[in-house]
Design brief:
The complex is a heterodimer.
Chain A lengths: L1 H31 L4 H10 L3 H12 L4 H12 L2 H4 L14 H6 L3 H7 L10 H26 L12 H17 L4 H17 L5 H14 L1 H11 L1
Chain B lengths: L3 H25 L8 H22 L12 H17 L2 H19 L2
Helix pairs in contact in B: 3-4
The chains are: A mainly alpha, B mainly alpha.
């Protein structure tokens, strides 16, 4: 139990920095539209998504229709549809904790659990659960602190949110080193770049996901051969 | 004035849809049921593509046309890669790279 928590805590530290910073940014923005700390806490607890919560400030303060809110939510969150597919086996047998662990699959949590098993000496179930809970607790704390402090923030946080970018880059490098076959990583980067150039930063994620899936389908034979070499 | 009731409905809608999206792979392919080989294959290769996608996602709002042309984010990104290849310490790479980025945007590329 203790070891699982310690390992999960250590793994969660990069997310701690990013979530506190991004959460505070969100809280400040939300408060500026007249929503108090309780709203920030409620949203962090139930929605638990950085990109959507930032957009939600506009939907809520601007009184967006429910249709607009729903359509935009699907657009912004579509990438999460992908995440479960690589965790079908890893999250098998997690019991009562499983729904919460799926609920908590943010970009950051997913990136920490998608490759590599739980560290040696840890209880797999507890490790992944602690990781998910720790990350969300940082997020809730950040959002509420931001809304509490509002615009009177005594310190400058500009740039702390780069921790998220750095974390994804580090995981990308780790994955690259652990695999002989780099084609899946290259497919992900290239498809996304091409779709970003074609569709623009507002609507490139769904096309990227479609292209990635199609390209994987086309190269399946070749990639499965490579995968079996890796094992 | 905040419309409390309407805001709560919006939050419930967004929270519900988010959860639905995150749950759908697990609902489509529940434990103990056989799933198509293609899905198992996708599950194996997707993590590598998704992390690549997320890296690009982080850079999506950079404007290359106007000053500072995305240079701070790119320079810091290269620094993270080099530091991580060199030392292989996740915390050092993430916090070192973030500190470096903060120095770049707050002092160098003002």
């Amino acid at each position: 139990m203790k070891t699982s928590f310690k390992h999960a805590f250590k793994a969660s530290l990069p997310v701690f920095a990013g979530y506190i910073a991004l959460g505070i940014g969100f809280g400040v923005l939300l408060e500026s539209k007249g929503y108090s700390i309780l709203w920030a806490g409620l949203m962090a607890l139930t929605m638990y998504s950085g990109s959507l919560q930032y957009a939600a400030v506009d939907f809520m303060s601007g009184g967006a229709t429910l249709i607009t809110t729903a359509v935009m939510t699907v657009f912004i969150q579509a990438r999460h549809f992908f995440y479960g597919f690589s965790l079908l086996d890893r999250y098998k047998g997690m019991g009562g904790a499983k729904p919460y662990m799926i609920f908590g699959l943010t970009d950051e949590t997913y990136s920490l659990v998608c490759t590599g098993d739980a560290p040696k000496g840890t209880d797999k179930k507890k490790y992944f659960l602690f990781l998910t809970m720790l990350n969300q607790s940082y997020w809730i704390a950040g959002c509420m602190i931001g809304a509490f402090l509002g615009s009177v923030l005594p310190f400058e946080l500009k740039g702390v949110d780069y921790a998220m970018t750095a974390l994804f880059i580090v995981i990308f490098v780790d994955q690259w080193k652990s695999q002989k076959n780099h084609i899946p990583a290259i497919i992900g980067v290239l498809s996304t770049v091409v779709c970003l150039l074609i569709f623009g930063s507002e609507s490139f994620i769904i096309p990227s996901m479609a292209v990635i899936t199609v390209v994987f389908a086309i190269f399946r034979k070749k990639l499965e051969k490579e995968e079996s070499k890796n094992d | 004035m905040i419309d409390v009731k309407y805001s709560i409905i919006q939050i419930a809608l967004m929270a519900g849809l988010t959860a639905l999206i995150r749950f759908s792979p697990f609902m489509l392919f529940p434990e103990g049921r056989k799933r198509p080989a293609f899905i198992t294959y996708l599950g194996k290769v997707l993590p590598y593509a998704i992390i690549g996608m997320l890296v690009i996602y982080c850079f999506k709002d950079i404007s290359f046309a106007s000053y500072p042309h995305g240079l701070p984010a790119i320079i810091a990104g290269v620094a993270v890669v080099l530091l991580h290849v060199w030392k292989g310490n996740t915390l050092l790479s993430v916090f070192g790279g973030t500190a470096f980025y903060m120095i770049l945007i707050n002092f160098i590329f003002k």
